[in-house]
Amino acid sequence: YDDLRDLLINDYKIRGRRSLDRAELSLKHLGSFFSGMKVVDITSSVIEDYILSRKKSGASNGTINRELSALNRIFTLARRQTPPKVMNPPFVTKLKESGPRQGFFEHDDYLRLLDALPEYLKPVLTIAYFTGMRKSEILNLQWCHTNLTEKKIALPAEMTKSGEGREIFLAGALYDCISAQWNIRKSQYPDCLRVCFEVLPGA
After folding, report:
1. Are residues 65 and 94 in contact, defined by beta-carbon separation less than 8 angstroms?
2. Is pLDDT larger for residue 61 or for residue 107?
3. Could you tell me the CA-to-CA distances from 202 to 48, 104, 119 in Å, in that order?
């Protein structure tokens, strides 16, 4: 593990990502558990032990997910090396995070508005409601930022108002929405880069 962790730091520096401090914090927590371990010994069950230890320390699911994403990225980078440093990376699970924030816009309001909107605007509302993403982030969201296999959206730093990249995990209605958009894209708009198609009613 200790030989691989620097791959993530170097990747952040090469790509100029502004969230290096956050990655280093994740690595600090990961290192307190995995430092000294051989990669072959880092199995899915060992990763689950890490999750339990972090939960016991009071870390939130969101915080743990950021750390698990960093761990998963380490394995991905290691597998891409020539020759590969890891051949069979373990499955890294993700935890369920809190649902959408409650406020003036309640769930019943969301459902009523969803029902009233034309089909081409429903994905925009669903993504906004379940993620809190800004309008510009949603309309500029591309398939290269979305991974249905890993069930996550990875927003690059240049797309966010804060200037920091962030990851959003897909589940439930949100995952179903993105998956449906992908199926529409494959059948009707194979060259479309954006997740939310700018399609006029009846087009």
Report:
1. yes
2. 61
3. 49, 33, 10
CB neighbourhood size of 4 (10 A): 18
State the distance between the two ends of the chain, measured CA to CA, in whole angstroms. 52
For 54, the token pair is: 């972090």
pLDDT of 95 > 60? The answer is: yes
Indicate the DSSP class of residue 158: G
Residue 107 pLDDT exceeds 80: no
Omega before residue 123 within 30° of 0, cis: no
Q: What is the pLDDT of residue 103?
A: 53
* Cβ atoms of residues 170 and 178 within 8 Å: yes
pTM of the model: 0.50
The pair of three-digit structure tokens given for residue 53, joined into one six-digit string: 């230890």
Predicted confidence band of residue 102 (pLDDT cuts 50, 70, 90): low
Contact between residue 194 and residue 145 where contact means Cβ atoms under 8 Å apart: no
86-120 burial code (b ≥16 CB/10 A, e <16): beebbebebeeeeeeeeeeeeeeebeeeeeeeeeb
